[in-house]
Structure formats: C-alpha cells, structure tokens
Amino acid sequence: MTEGENKTLDWVGRGRVQAANARDSLHLRVDAVTTQSRRFKSLIGDFFRTEFKRVRPKWGPYEVTIIIEHTPGSPRHDVDNVAKAVLDALTGVVFHDDSQVEKLLVEKIEGERARVKVRARPILPEAAE
C-alpha cells in the first residue's frame, strides 16, 4: 500500500471514513485510531450503510494490510489491539468472519495525523500453469 497508490484512488466519503475500490482490493481510511472494536464498528458500519453501499461481505480467504499512523503527540496503541478492532469492524462488511483472514500485515508509522489505513483483498488461487 504505497502513498502513490493511495493518491490515485477514487475515494468516497466526506467524514472520518473514506473508501475506494481498486481492482480486487478495498481501501479504507479512518481518521481515528482506537483499540475499541465498538467505536470502529460504529464508524465503519455507518459509513458502509450510508455512503459506500456497493460492498457486500464475501466468502473465501483474505489478505489484510493495516497501517497505523501516529503523530508525535498522539497515543501509542498496541498494533495487535488496533488490528483486532479493525478486523471486528470489517466482519459482516467485507468478509463474513475474521477467521477468513489468512494473511495479516500490521505496521505502525509516523504520519501527518492519527489514522488507520486498511487494504483488504481476497487471496486468489494460483493461476493454473
């Protein structure tokens, strides 16, 4: 998930949550960082019900990348707790159950603001030779 890739996406959303589809991937930006699943579920669930209705949960294995941005003055959350909150929020929206996530990368970096960037995409079977 590169910065250039994020700039070329057609983002939808005017509030704290924005999303974009790119090929087989769903990209999500949430201008909040929390370890509380309930807060992420509310933010993300409301967004997908009102502004980004085209996404429906699917079955099959998924790969999820989570980038946690923080500023020098923002609280430092444990990556595992933020990841769990994000995966819980995506359950029922992107995939049916977070047990479908077979590959997970979580990274914490310094950024312009405290926020979470997510890319979720299905893991496609290897092309038959």
Description:
- Helix 2 packs parallel to helix 3.
- This protein has a single domain, classed as 60s Ribosomal Protein L30, Chain: A, CATH 3.30.1330.
- The chain contains three helices and five strands.
- The two termini are 28 Å apart.
- The longest helix has 14 residues.
- Helix content is 24%, strand content 30%.
- The chain is of the alpha+beta class and 129 residues long.
- This is RusA family crossover junction endodeoxyribonuclease.
- One of its GO terms (molecular function) is magnesium ion binding.
Task: Summarize, please.
The chain is an alpha+beta fold and 129 residues long.
Work out the strand percent: 25-35%
| CATH architecture designation | 2-Layer Sandwich
* The CATH superfamily title: Holliday junction resolvase RusA
Radius of gyration: 14 Å
Based on CA inertia axes, which overall geometry fits?
globular
Q: What structural category arises from helix and sheet content? A: alpha+beta
Poorly predicted residue ranges: none
Strand order in space, largest sheet: 1-2-5-3-4
As for the number of domains, it is 1
Instruction: Report the helical percentage.
Output: 10-25%
N/C terminus separation: 28 Å
Number of helices: 3
Order of helices and strands: HEEHEHEE
CATH T-level fold name: 60s Ribosomal Protein L30, Chain: A
Name of the level-1 CATH class: Alpha Beta
What's the pLDDT, averaged over the residues? 86
Tally the beta strands.
5
Please summarize the sheet with the most strands.
Answer: 5 strands, mixed
